[in-house]
Amino acid sequence: MKWKVAVIVRLKEGLNDPEGRVIGKALGNLGYTVENLHVPKYFEFELDSENPEEEVEEMCKKLLANPLIHSWEYRIEPVS
């Protein structure tokens, strides 16, 4: 069966996000007031699988994220 998958990977709470800090500062220079801006990674793909949750979890652990510094969440829906 084919599935549409969306994965969001974020730095774990309390870790420094240098890219988010730079973007937040640039927005401040443009006159916007933002705090604690974070830049997650977003992946979207189709997967042909009988066990999509298991495979997506493996993908996150093996390649899409570093389990030591990242947390992740995903959404899996059947392709219509």
Give structural notes.
The protein is α+β, with helices and mostly antiparallel strands and 80 residues long. The chain has a single domain (2-78), classed as 2-Layer Sandwich (Mth169, Chain: A), CATH 3.30.1280.10. Helices cover 31% and strands 34% of the residues. The protein contains 2 helices and 3 strands. It has helices at residues 18-29, 52-64; strands at 2-11, 41-48, 70-78. A 3-stranded antiparallel sheet has the order 2-1-3, with helices on one face. The longest helix is centred in the last third of the chain and has 13 residues, at 52-64. It starts with a strand and ends with a strand.
Layout of SSEs?
Blueprint: E1 2-11, H1 18-29, E2 41-48, H2 52-64, E3 70-78
Antiparallel strand pairs: 1-2, 1-3
Which key features would you list for this structure?
3-stranded antiparallel β-sheet; alpha+beta; 2 helices; elongated; single chain; Mth169, Chain: A
